[in-house]
Amino acid sequence: HVRSKNRASTTYKQAAVYCKQEAPQIISDMMKGDRKTMFADADSMKAQLYSNMFKSTYRTENMYSSTGRCQWIVRHSWFESFMLLVILLNAIWIGVDVDLNPADSLPKAPPLFQVVENMFCLIFTMEICLRLGAFSKKIHAFTDTIF
Predict the structure, then answer these.
(1) What is the pTM of this model?
(2) CA–CA distance, 126 with 123 (Å, rounded to integer)
């Protein structure tokens, strides 16, 4: 017990000596700007804020063609609203399917469940095809993480 107490007091003494010797050097370096301070520079923070505020945001629609039926459909606000509604209905249908469908797989399910599942699949496939058709360069669809 005495031994650990001596070891602890030695550690504290060493830390105090280190702080006494190094503190003036650290402070002078901070005044010169050689060391990073704990707080960021206000001017650099303002510059970063302004650059973030006025930076143009990335939008997938900027990669779409300017002419054509696919881009016209995909850019329309009704298309976006319709697809959000389909996603909502699909989420609700998944809950209904889990509760009421007695079959383990789709081919064994009652016809209603098969038809609704295939309708959702068709709608989502059409959405992907329309969005792919809207791109001016189709390769951009595969490099776009939002697509």
Answers:
(1) 0.60
(2) 5
